[in-house]
Amino acid sequence: MKLKHADQSFLFSTTTIPDVFFAEYLSMANGDYVKVYLYILYLSKYNKEIKINDLSKKLNISFKVIEEALKFWENENVLTKTPTGFILNDLQELELHSLYSPKLTSSPEDIKKTEKNKTRAMAIENINNLCFQGMMRPTWYNDIDLWFKKYNFDEDVMIALFNYCFQRNGTSRNYIQTVAEAWYKNNIKTFSDLDNYFLKQENFTKIKKSISKKLGINRNLTEYESNYIEKWTVDYGYSLDIIELALKKTTSKTNPNFDYLNKIISDWYDRNLKTVNDVEKFLSEFKSKNKSIKNIEKKQGYNNYEQRNYDNMDSLYANKF
Known about the structure:
- A hairpin with a 2-residue loop joins strand 1 and strand 2.
- The model is unreliable at 303-311 (pLDDT under 50).
- It is built from 16 helices and 2 strands.
- A two-stranded antiparallel ribbon has the order 1-2.
- By secondary structure, the chain is mostly helical.
- It has helices at residues 19-25, 31-43, 52-59, 63-75, 91-100, 108-113, 118-132, 139-151, 155-169, 173-185, 191-214, 223-235, 240-247, 258-270, 276-300, 311-316, and strands spanning 79-82, 85-88.
């Protein structure tokens, strides 16, 4: 890998890092990727070739991670691959081009000047101070303006979005947009919608933990198991009290599974049973009816009695509550 040379004395030379690196790129990369970038930025001043193996030894980072880091910076347009190595692109020049290129939205200045968007401008400034220490790069204004239009969030939700992401995974644009997409798919537009969404998520998490505990599962539930619980609680609107009635049906099972639970709970939903009382009444009536059928069968004999497809139901509700 060939690096360019700058005629400077090693003793008095410095390696300059533009502020845009800290404002935009630092939060996007993990520690090893940052180490790779900083070191090749430093080496780019000297007219020598450097091999990936040498970088691996010098930085004490595996060969595989070095390759991943170079690919990452290449994808972010920080590096440009050439037949003989890499060119380190000027981050300030890249920033200038991104600002100079045609925009689909208003500039930050235009947004702030418009009387109609004063509330939005205040929200963006709040995000700037909250997540960027007042040093948000100008292109973020365009992104936020586009997201306002795309997702139809109100100002409080947009602030909450950045705060939520900042507290968990920093200010990576891809991460913020992923969370925004999830909120949008859950029909979140106002802060009230968001509050209700968090309450549902909290309730969903509690129910998952409770079900895992009652089934003796000491691992994280799989995606498919979680999807079952989401169907019962969100699609069916069932509380934990109703789900617990189904959980009791697993006591006779050696290896209870979610497919078995889902058959029971889906059967209740198909019968339009909405409350604990509805379910208990159905089970009581089913038990009495099934008992009567068996008495008739016992008296008349199986061959003379017309079966009515109760076998599957008998299996489903085999053990007592």
